[in-house]
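User: Predict the complex with iron/sulfur cluster.
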Amino acid sequence: MINRELAAEVKTLMPSRERETDRNSPVSMWNEMDRLRGKPEPTTVVIFRTRGCSWYDFSSCSMCGYFNDVNTNVGVGNLKTQIDKAYDFMENTKILKIFTSGSFLDRREVPKEAFDYFMKRMSDKVEKILVESRTEYVTEKTMEEMKSYGIDTRIAIGVESSNDYVVKNMVNKGTNFSKFVKAAKVLQKSDIELRSYLLLKPPFMPEEEAVLDSIKSVRDCAPYSTDISVNPMNIQKNTLVEKLWKRGEYRPPWLWSVARVLLETQDVQADVLSYPTGGDRERGSHNDDHDRELVNIIFKASLSQDFGELQEYYDRGDKRKYFSHLANESRIPVQYDLDSFIRKISAGSVKI
Ligand code: SF4
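Assistant: Here is the predicted structure with iron/sulfur cluster placed in the model:
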């Protein structure tokens, strides 16, 4: 389940989690659209500052830079103040997504007292909630505790891939697919919805293989999931992926690849969606030429679950550069980013 060399390398890149950040304010709060009740609705997103993911004590996932936001000194009192601020921030929305740079259900990260305070405080305002968790914290006990507050809930789990080799040797997640299935069955038994996150294009994997891996993973997760969010890689600070990217050895996936995964999994039972973070930017999923329109169409299709416009855009798009990149990439052992490499040479930061 763990590739110790990879885990150690990722660990060396992580900055200290002891830092002077405001313990009484969430990392960030904003409103966006999502479809947690079967239709697009305004949704509030809050990122609470916590001590962070339990996996950080040992290592981190190769793409995860959420440790940049944590503070090991956040206590229950700080969390309660953050919760009050989140409560006041919610004005015209009834749907809330909570991120914590870790697992909301991990009692070391969000102690029971803060969890109870949160659920009680939000119960008069929130009609639907999504929280994230690693599989190990999804237990019958935690689900009973969630349900006791009567807020309709969806739990989001980062599966990343249903292929254990990928999760172990590319994502460094410290888990596997059977643990996901076990957690998903607990959710099914508790009648709680599940959003499965998949990572499109982990490091050390050519783009074509990454597309096929995501398509297969969607199919493997679908029987357990209400919806599946296909998350194309975005480059976060101090991560292994950023190190590779800076050396020109990793390129985030093309938007055409995101479109392909969405279009080729239309037949599964669960909703399949993608909201590409950093889409059309260098650190996020992008095509060779700027294509903001495609990002917008992907968002729109994900929200409406009507993929007609995306299919039409894909069919008429000029994908020659994309397929030529895929063919070249599968012939060499690294995922080159020729444009970035050339820019670095021009800027003189790479000597040849
Ligand atoms: S489990 Fe989630 S929060 Fe923890 S290191 Fe991995 S991606 Fe980051």
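DSSP finds 13 helices and eight strands in the chain.
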